């Protein structure tokens, strides 16, 4: 469906070029951006509209944030109503009634036993919070020597100190060495194109890489290790799907050694893998789950950590006087009432519009569509899981990232948005897109690649 765009042409790019003097864009090559600005002026349904009046299919659901599309009137109404009723309530020593209800509701999506929710405002905060909970838990149990954390190469866990320490993206780490947490190791990532290129869904090779965790336990002794943190599917470095049996092995090793397993589900939570969480998709139950992004459909920042009840019990049951705070952590906007209203509205839509069923259809449609491009020039790998997929492209010699950038520019000219990480292109269309829209999106992407190579 073509939406009339003239109403959205209210800005002119020159103004933005001037305004860019003041705006330092995050995770953006700012010098390149000034020469090639991308300015969005509005969003409706599964489309963005830019300052050239172009209608762009939202092939990455914002930043994996907006699976329900943009501007749903039900979200608008819920947010407006909450604003009129109560715009803010202190997050410490009290909370709005709807935030209690939201916590309960979220635990109906998480695996049984994970039923205490700590609210924060972003994925990064969720990760750092989960790491702190892990330390507090072991300490409460009298095992304060357990402080080491284990992440994974190519993992992305946000931009805060804990997250970059356990994260495994070199560029996010190399400038910040002295700030990083001590005592962190990384498991190897599981992507090996010689063994698994063009796998549909989970690759069958690679479960043995989980044994590296046993090696780290031998090296440090389990009594020094607090937690392992992993994205079930690594999103930011390009939809790296866990090999069959890999997560199960990690779970078993953690259980055997009393190490907590944290699934960072900031991208994978709430339907992205055509299941509530990656934990459900892969049938592996972690001890904590972080979430953010889709919980409010990206409309208002919100994140959180869902923890096993006995973790909560251990930390809150450390003794001392009852009026004393047990866990010294939290944020001014934790469980913010307007974010809470947005989250309830998003979950209402999720439930009333049969969104989970739609994700199951799109899982197949997107998987078939992306793998149909196999054999086209320039594609080194195609991966998919749920409503997410990625392509590794042949780089331009000596210029890492330039191919990805050129492909993004060309995608925009062709009316589609994708997510780039260097020369890897990720896709995560909205769950409310029709199968035909998703097919046409991928077909357009195929045309872009034909031009590029
Ligand atoms: C797995 C994961 N963890 C944490 C984050 C950080 O989230 P935020 O940007 O909301 O801080 C992200 C962001 O993409 C993510 O993908």
Mean pLDDT: 95
CATH topology of the largest domain: Aspartate Aminotransferase, domain 2
What percentage of amino acids are in beta strands?
A: 15-25%
User: Biggest β-sheet: count, sense, barrel?
Assistant: 7 strands, mixed
Task: Give the count of helical stretches.
Answer: 17
Q: What is the topology, as strand order, of the major beta sheet?
A: 4-10-9-8-7-5-6
The counted number of beta strands is 15
Helix content: 25-40%
Round the Cα radius of gyration to an integer and report it: 22 Å
Low-confidence stretches: 1-10
Brief summary of the model shown:
This protein has helices spanning 13-19, 30-35, 61-64, 73-85, 97-107, 123-140, 161-166, 170-173, 193-196, 212-220, 246-257, 278-282, 309-316, 337-352, 355-371, 402-413, 435-452, and strands spanning 40-44, 47-50, 55-58, 114-120, 148-152, 184-187, 225-230, 260-264, 288-291, 303-308, 379-385, 388-393, 416-417, 419-421, 424-427. With 453 residues, it is an alpha/beta fold.
Provide structural commentary.
This protein is of the alpha/beta class. The chain has helices at 13-19, 30-35, 61-64, 73-85, 97-107, 123-140, 161-166, 170-173, 193-196, 212-220, 246-257, 278-282, 309-316, 337-352, 355-371, 402-413, 435-452, and strands at residues 40-44, 47-50, 55-58, 114-120, 148-152, 184-187, 225-230, 260-264, 288-291, 303-308, 379-385, 388-393, 416-417, 419-421, 424-427. The chain folds into 2 domains: 6-71 and 354-452, Aspartate Aminotransferase, domain 1; 76-352, Aspartate Aminotransferase, domain 2. It contains 17 helices and 15 strands. The strands form 3 sheets. Strands 4-10-9-8-7-5-6 form a 7-stranded mixed β-sheet, with helices on both faces. The protein has a 4-stranded mixed β-sheet with strand order 1-2-3-13. A hairpin with a 2-residue loop joins β14 and β15 (424-427). The radius of gyration is 22 Å and the shape is globular. The model is unreliable at 1-10 (pLDDT under 50). Pyridoxal-5'-phosphate binds at residues 122-124, 127, 156-158, 231, 235-236, 264, 266-267, 292. Pyridoxal-5'-phosphate binds next to α6.
């Amino acid at each position: 469906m073509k939406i009339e765009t003239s109403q959205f042409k209210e800005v002119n790019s020159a103004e933005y070029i001037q305004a860019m003097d003041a705006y330092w864009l995050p995770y953006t090559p700012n010098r390149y951006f000034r020469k090639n600005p991308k300015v969005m002026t509005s969003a409706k349904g599964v489309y963005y509209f830019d300052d050239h009046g172009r209608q762009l299919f939202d092939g990455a659901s914002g930043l994996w944030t907006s699976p329900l599309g943009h501007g749903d009137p039900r979200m608008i109404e819920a947010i407006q109503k909450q604003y009129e009723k109560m715009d803010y309530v202190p997050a410490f020593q009290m909370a709005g009634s709807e935030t209690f209800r939201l916590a309960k509701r979220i635990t109906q999506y998480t695996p049984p036993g994970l039923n205490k929710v700590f609210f924060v405002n972003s994925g990064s905060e969720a990760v750092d919070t989960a790491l702190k909970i892990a330390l507090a838990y072991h300490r409460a149990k009298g095992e304060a020597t357990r402080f080491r954390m284990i992440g994974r190469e190519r993992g992305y866990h946000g931009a805060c100190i804990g997250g970059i320490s356990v994260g495994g993206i070199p560029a996010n780490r190399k400038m910040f060495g002295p700030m990083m947490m001590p005592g962190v190791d990384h498991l190897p990532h599981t992507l090996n194109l010689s063994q698994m290129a063009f796998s549909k869904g989970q690759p069958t090779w690679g479960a043995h890489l989980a044994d590296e965790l046993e090696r780290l336990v031998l090296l440090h002794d389990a009594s020094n290790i607090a937690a392992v943190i992993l994205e079930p599917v690594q999103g930011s470095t390009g939809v790296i799907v866990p090999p069959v049996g890999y997560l199960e092995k990690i779970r078993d090793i953690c259980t055997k050694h009393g190490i907590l397993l944290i699934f960072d589900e900031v991208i994978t939570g709430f339907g992205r893998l055509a299941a509530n969480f990656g934990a459900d998709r892969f049938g592996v139950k972690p001890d904590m789950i972080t979430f953010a992004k889709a919980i409010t459909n990206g409309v208002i920042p919100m994140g959180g950590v869902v923890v096993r009840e006995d973790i909560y019990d251990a930390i809150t049951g450390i003794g001392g006087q009852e009026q004393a705070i047990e866990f010294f952590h939290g944020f001014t906007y934790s469980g913010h009432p307007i974010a809470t209203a947005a989250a309830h509205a998003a979950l209402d839509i999720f439930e009333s519009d049969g969104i989970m069923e739609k994700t199951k259809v799109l899982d197949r449609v997107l998987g078939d569509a992306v793998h149909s491009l196999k054999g086209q020039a320039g594609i080194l790998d195609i991966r998919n899981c749920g409503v997410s997929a990625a392509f590794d492209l042949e780089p331009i010699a000596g210029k890492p990232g330039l191919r990805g950038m050129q492909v993004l520019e060309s995608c925009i000219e062709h009316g589609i948005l994708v997510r780039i990480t260097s020369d890897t292109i990720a896709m995560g269309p909205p769950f409310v897109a029709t199968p035909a829209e998703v097919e046409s999106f991928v077909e357009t992407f195929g045309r872009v690649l034909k031009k590029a190579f």
